Amino acid sequence: MTELLVARxxxxxxxxxxxxxxxxxxxxxxxxxxxxxxxxxxxxTAFNLLTGVLRPDRGTIHFAxxxxxxxxxxxxxxxxxxxxxxxxxxxxxLTVLQNVMAGAHxxxxxxxxxxxxxxxxxxxxxxxxxxxxxxxxxxxxxAELAGQRADALSYGDRRxxxxxxxxxxxxxxxxxDEPAAGMNDREKAALSELVTRLNADDGLTIVLVEHNVRMVxxxxxxxxVLHEGSVLAEGATERVLRQPEVVGVYLGRRRxxxxxxxxxxxxxxxxxxxx
Length: 275
Ligand SMILES: Nc1ncnc2c1ncn2[C@@H]1O[C@H](COP(=O)(O)OP(=O)(O)OP(=O)(O)O)[C@@H](O)[C@H]1O
Ligand SMILES: [Mg+2]
Prior knowledge:
Elements: E1 3-14, E2 17-28, E3 32-36, H1 43-51, E4 58-63, E5 66-67, H2 73-79, E6 81-83, H3 96-108, H4 110-116, H5 119-139, H6 155-168, E7 173-177, H7 185-200, E8 205-209, H8 213-219, E9 222-227, E10 230-236, H9 237-242, H10 244-259, H11 265-274
Helix pairs in contact: 3-5, 3-6, 4-5, 5-6, 8-11, 10-11
């Protein structure tokens, strides 16, 4: 299999805090990879470095055979790398359709075209974007919510709209940062089904950050486990989840949460599910 994304020796520190060190990651075309680890392990930081939200202090990133270590986030998005955020970032006052259309804008360059040509070119471009967005809404089961304002949606639907918006950019690689956070069981099942379809049917390469280890284990063939900024384990899902150091990290965290009485429901659920 061809490697779509390769990170080598990535590192970044914030003041005295080393958030990520010597981080290596290879994601093959067609992969559905789980990136897991306790709170503060460095998962979101890894996504921020891969997508260009942050620049690494050291290390390199290659995507589709090109070095992109210092490329701007927009260039990476155009090259086919798209993400969702741990904290949902929708335009609350816009409709679901408009939010998803916003995701397609970068890809189809409507704003640039508008500046250069204006008029009919812009209208054609907008029509194309609307068509793409409607197709994505149908694909993600959100078609009937197209006209709803984003702030009127349930939490789970807002998360799905985030994914739909990312898909509208027509990515080759989709990075999902805790897509199931705050979802109920029915929504989690629908999300798992969507992720499976996107990967198996559409061939989309996906990296999934998720605290719900049960969900990750059922979806991902391969896992990378981060702990305190370093890769603690990686490889086939079943094998990784049996490794004593991985079990230790999760059980330790669960005891932590128990003593703090109920903090981090997702984390304890994750620990119970997989380790
Ligand atoms: N912009 C920042 N400034 C300072 N410290 C940061 C920043 N971003 C992350 N950190 C620190 O880096 C470490 C890794 O954080 P990160 O958000 O990547 O963890 P995470 O694995 O995504 O955790 P969670 O599961 O809670 O989302 C933490 O100690 C965090 O406090
Ligand atoms: Mg995070």
